[in-house]
Amino acid sequence: MQTWQMQTAKARFSDVVRSAKSDGPQDITVHGKSVAVVLSREHYDRLSGNTQSLVQFMRSSPLYAMDELKLERDKSVAREVDL
User: Fold this and answer.
1) Mean pLDDT in runs of 10 for the chain (83 residues)?
2) DSSP letters along 25-70, please?
3) For the chain, which has fewer Cβ within 10 Å, the N-terminal or C-terminal residue?
4) Residue 16, Cβ neighbours under 10 Å: how many?
5) 9: burial class by Cβ within 10 Å (0-12, 13-18, 19+)?
6) Tally of CB atoms within 10 A around 6
7) Residue 35, CB half-sphere, CA atoms under 13 Å: how many?
């Protein structure tokens, strides 16, 4: 993780953001102490568990636009279980 002093991070904010996207989290310090971390959106979403909803997932399926979906059931006999 690259460390940036606050005044440098403010002056070169676009570089900090680009580095967060390409190189990972960027640490921001004030008087030598870490006070903030800049993350890419992708990294943040992964860490926060911010994923698509079940509805969005189902709608992105290649089967979503099909008018008729024919599924065949396995007709083999179920196995016997001793109880």
Assistant:
1) 96 97 97 96 84 81 81 84 84
2) -EEEEETTEEEEEE--HHHHHHHHT----HHHHHHTSTTTT-S---
3) C
4) 19
5) buried
6) 13
7) 11
